[in-house]
Amino acid sequence: MGSNACRNLFPQLLFVLDGTGPAGIDNRIRALHAADVDLAVALLLREVTVLAAPMTDLLQHGPAAAVWRPVRDPERRVGWMEQLMP
Fold it and tell me: Pick from 12, 19, 58, 67: most CB atoms within 10 A?
């Protein structure tokens, strides 16, 4: 399946993280990023934009705010509607 076909099926995958403090959120996002070494995960991350955000940030700033962290670039903060290349 080509990139465009996959993006039409799964434009983005959003993870909402809760139940831990800031260090736990960072650990979870870094674990998602580290999973990129698995071939199947690496292929998915090339085809689908995967974002993660803490529930506390979503409640405080709203889901459209730049609170989402791309799993492939966890140091960035983006809005979920931004056009990102996976």
Answer: 67
For the sheet with 69-70, list strands across it. Answer: 12-17, 49-54, 69-70
Q: Report the C-alpha dihedral over residues 24, 81, 79, 85, rounded to 10 degrees.
A: 80
pLDDT at 5 (0 to 100): 46
Kindly report the backbone phi and psi dihedral angles of residue 63, in degrees, each rounded to the nearest multiple of 5, phi listed first: -70, -20
Residue with tokens 């705010």: 65
Rounded to an integer, what distance in angstroms lies between the CA atom of residue 53 and that of residue 9?
Answer: 22
pLDDT in tens, 18-68: 988 889 988 998 888 888 788 888 888 788 888 999 999 999 999 999 999
Question: Which tokens is 72 given?
Answer: 């492939």
CA distance 22 to 78: 18
